[in-house]
Every structure is written in C-alpha cells, then in structure tokens.
C-alpha cells in the first residue's frame, strides 16, 4: 500500500503545488500578454497542422503494418517507435542533420527552392510530426489489428476497391484508435520542447511555442511561467477527458 | 456482358490440400452443398468469391471467375455470421455494393430500400446491425448480397445461430427469393431440411471431394456418405461394392444372435437410448454405428440400457441396395 500511495502522491503533489503557487491576481495579465498569446496561437496552429500530416501519412503506414505481410515489417514497426524512446533533443539534432541548411535533404532543398526548414514555423511543424507520428501510427495500428479483417473481405465481395474499403469500412471501424491516436499525438505535439527548440530555436511569433516560452520565462519570471503552465495543465486534463469519453464510447 | 442469370457455371477447383471439387450449375439452379465440418464447404464458397487462394477454373458464361479480380466478380456472398458493417445502417449496408460499384447515392438507396421491402424489413432501414435481431440481420445480409444483382449467390450456412422458429420463417422466405433469383445459388448447409426443401440439386462434399451430386430426393434415398445418411436419418452400411441403406425402424433388436440366414446382422454395445417421437431410438456401436427404433414397450421388455450388448438385424426386403460409386449399377437387391 505504501509504495502505491507514494507513487500516487509523487504524481499528484507537484501538480497541486503548481496550482497552489500560481499567482491568481497576475494570471489574467500573464495570459493576455502579447508573447503568451502568440506562443499559444503558434502552439495550437502547429500542433493541429502537424496532427493532420500525422494522420495523412500515419494512417496508410498503420494500415500497411496491420494488414499487409511484407519483409521488414518488424523492422519498420521498430522504426516507428524510435521517436517514442529517443530523447527529443536528439530528435532535434537528427532533424538538423537531415533538414538543416547543410543537411542531407536540407542542402539540396535550399539549392533548388531557396527554402529551409530550421528556424521557421514549417520547421516547428516538421519537428512535431516527427515526435507525434508514433502515437498516431501505434494507436491506429492497434485498432486495425483488433478490427475483424473479414469486414474488408465482405466489402471486396460487394465490389469495393481497396481504397473504398479503406475509406468506408476499415477506417470507420478503427475510429476509436484513430481518435485516440489523434488526441495523444496532438497532446504530444503541444508539449514538444526538445526537438523544436534544438531544430528551430526560440523566436517569438515564428518558432516560440508554449513549452519553449515557459522554459524561457521560468528563468526570468517565475510567476509568468506558472501561469502559462497552468494553461498547459488545463489543456492536458481536457485531452484526457476527451480521450476517456472516446475510449468508453462505442464506434 | 450477358444479362444476369443466363450463365452456366463449370467449376473444377482446388484449394490447397483441402478441396478438390468439380461441378456444374445451371442458371436459376439452387445447389445445396452439404458435408461434415471440415469437408471444405466454406472454402469452396470463399474460393468462388475470391477470398482464398485457389487453383483450377470456374467458368461462368465463358469467363473464368477465378481469373477475375474479386471486386469484379458478380458474386454475392452471404457470410456465416452475416458480417454486416457495424457502423452502417441496414439501408447503407444493402446499398454498399451498388455505391461501391459507382452508383449514385439516391439510386443505390432506392434499390436497397426495395430489397428491404421485399424482405419485409423496410421499417428497419435506419437501424444499426446491433439493433437488429438475428433473423432481421440475416435478412439484411441476404438483401445486401442480392442488391448487387450477382450472377452467383453464395450462402454460407444462412440459418446457423438463429432460433428454430426464426429459421423456419426465414427458410420459407429464402425459398421464395431463391425461386425468383435468375442466377446460380450455392447454399452451404448442415441441415438436411435446407437441402431437401430449398435446393434443386445437392452436392455432397466429403474430405474436400465431391462424393455425390443429385436431386435431393435421390441423395436422401441413396446417400453415399455416412454424413448424409445421418442427416436424413438412415443407416448406411457398405457391403462389397454396394451400399445398403435402411431406416432405423426396419431394424430388429434382439439380445441373442438372430436365427435365419440373413447376412444383415450386426452386434455391438448400446451407446445411447433416447426417445424419438413415439419410439425409442438406440444408437449401437456395431461396425459401423447403427440406429434402431423400437416401441417403448419392446425397449422396456428387453431391458435396453447403454453398454448392453445387442444384436441388430434387417430383412433384405426392407433395405435399399445400390452401387457405392456414382453411376455404378446396383447389383440387385
């Protein structure tokens, strides 16, 4: 009992302490400051765009992993989980090596188009997609695996192409997983700090998201950091609540 | 493309080591496929529908179905357990095939509504499958398969898992739809009554091979497999190149070796004793297992209980004797 209680307290106390030490009188001012609003807007926009990309690219990948038997499937699945365990800072360094101005892809891209990812909002989105993709793919793959593949067969005998089957049968049946993956991925993206700051720096308005702002603010203005953190806590709890309803509901 | 229902099916197909079946079917014909579990009945249907790897050919109106992509085969498969799409309404389930083949929503739904009406469940159009009873769901499943106007309708044990009263109602209804259906229908069943009442011909699968094909009455009267004999309630005994079939009530039970010259006598312990209509039915572990019916009075007088050794005999005039192989001439009675 004691270790269990300790564990619960360990999780709970910091959150309560944070809420308790928030300066409520300064809160409105902190939250409506230009920097905070910019960072919040950027966080929401980049996370949302990132999750759209994660779905567009991750759904087919999840389907491939769940439904198609091919050589190297195990290796591909392992690869998908790498960003989960990779320290985010390392993810940022890796992204730099690939998409930086002198990176493997970044350099030719710069030569051809004059565009480079680092230190731009696009770079923020790219970093978010990289770290959030595993959540989306793993959640959807799990849902696809537990869905009865004979529904796909039924669709095929009724004349549906693979694409129609995927769109009208496979994905709707995997919807709880799609929603869970989307919410988890979006939340991961919203909280992203390491990869984003390493790859894109910390420019207000273009690359400064809520987590980077909190990180910076904490060094100068403890109260502001607390206020901003409270916003993130509220968002996190909101995500949890949303997910719970979907997990308990039926498709 | 020919109109629906004018095509003959000539099939000779092999599914792995499990099934090697050759058969033909005429347009408008209902072919019942019966056989014990594991005989390959479902595999045969799934092969025609394109859901399992298959060798050989299944030529329908000059075109080999097996060389046609699954979605281009004009085949309607009613799955065991229905497999209605759980997230779609009954109407959307039935309309699915036509929509998937590129028909507009309104046109597809009009056809679907028409099919639901024919099955007497138009008022259930908006329900999700989980809100349907077993019989209703099965009607939707059959309507879904028929709505695509298939050349071949494949029904995989359509009555399994339904209440007996629901089965009876649905059987009559399906019989009506099958009579109207211009294409070929293959009906997998393990119920003799389906084969006898719904089909024009019966195809008996045994261990993946076609053991017998014929009109239901003929197959029922002269079964060539023990499975079919059991389904129709006949005893079946091999005798050289012949088979001997006889009803359980043609069997005489005695405690001692019967006198006389009849070769039709067997000995063994009683396996089960159970009421059967007005009679008592014995199952006796002779070689092979045999059924015998006798009056309750006779059963009581003989003191028949499981485990007791008995003799069974049948009069030569009460049995039917025929060649064990298809086309083999009977060698007399």
Detailed description of the structure:
The complex is a heterodimer of chains A (251) and B (333). Chain A has helices at residues 2-21, 27-32, 34-67, 73-85, 88-99, 106-113, 121-146, 150-157, 162-173, 175-190, 194-200, 210-220, 222-248. Chain A is mostly helical and 251 residues long. Chain A has one domain: MetI-like fold (Orthogonal Bundle). Chain A is globular and about 65 Å long. Chain B has two domains: 9-221, Rossmann fold (3-Layer(aba) Sandwich), CATH 3.40.50.300; 239-323, OB fold (Dihydrolipoamide Acetyltransferase, E2P) (Beta Barrel), CATH 2.40.50. Helices cover 27% and strands 30% of the residues of chain B. In chain B, the strands form four sheets. Chain B has a six-stranded mixed beta sheet, with helices on both faces. A five-stranded antiparallel beta sheet of chain B has the order 13-17-14-15-16. Chain B has a four-stranded antiparallel beta sheet with strand order 2-1-4-5, covered by helices on one side. In chain B, strand 11 and strand 12 (242-246) form a beta hairpin. Chain B is elongated and about 80 Å long. Chains A and B meet through helix 8 and helix 9 of A and strand 6 and helix 2 of B.
Helix content of chain B: 25-40%
Low-confidence stretches of chain B: 328-333
The CATH topology name of chain A reads: MetI-like fold
Instruction: Give the largest interface pair and sizes.
Output: A-B, 19 and 22 residues
Structure summary, number of beta strands of chain B: 18
Please write the string of helix (H) and strand (E) elements of chain A.
HHHHHHHHHHHHH
Tally of contiguous helical segments of chain A: 13
The profile of the biggest β sheet of chain B is:
6 strands, mixed
N- and C-termini, Cα separation of chain B: 51 Å
The whole-number mean of residue pLDDT values of chain B reads: 87
- State mean pLDDT of chain A (0 to 100 scale): 89
CATH class of chain A: Mainly Alpha
In total, the number of domains of chain A comes to 1
User: What fraction of the residues of chain B are assigned to beta strands by DSSP?
Assistant: 25-35%
